[in-house]
Amino acid sequence: MSTTELSAETRARILGTAWRLVRDRGAGAVTVKEVAAAAGVSRQLIYFHYQNRAGLLLAMARHQDRSSGFQREVAATRALDPVPGFETLLRAWCGYMAEILPVARALEAAYITGDEGGDAWRDRMTELREAFRLALERIAAEGRLAPAWTGETAADWAWARVQPGSWAALVGMRGWDPREYTERTVGSLLAELVTAPAGQLPIPARFGHPRFFLVFRGLGVSGAGAPGHTA
Fold first, then answer.
1. pLDDT band for position 212 (50/70/90)?
2. Do 63 and 12 contact (CB within 8 A), yes or no?
3. Is the whole-model pTM more than 0.90?
């Protein structure tokens, strides 16, 4: 292997090192020189493969989504029926936010201030929004998208509602249990954006109740607080 080739192991070490440094210190404080030293490679190698610090941070964020399994989880939701697929996607993202929050907020801050890490934030948020759009277009094709919404506007709404800043405010600052955050977020978005199948009772707006655990079975819902449920 030449001095400019990069094995999968070395690539993972570089990108994992960058992730840890950004998590601990913020995107703006991390340099290519520091990443190279901590990963045990030369700066020249990093520049050769990632061009600059912005390219390194972008590759770092994409690598995290792959190596964590989140990317596979997103792909798997498309094999489900449309409404359960959307619910599963929301739950996967809510769970993933707890894992990535420090780096996500650091990249968001870089985006706001115009730092190089902002490209990574824009890239990952664009891909997340596209995942929501695909899920909601499938719901629309099934005739289950609520009136006055399109796949595009519903995707915008869902994407905006699950920004990491929301998780940080409610769980981090206000002390919400992460499970309650997930149940209320998922329940309220389903109630707003999805209609019940023909002949079924409407999806209740009270899904946000902390005792409610949504379970889709294709043609309806069940759970604490749902019609017909007994404790």
1. very low
2. yes
3. no
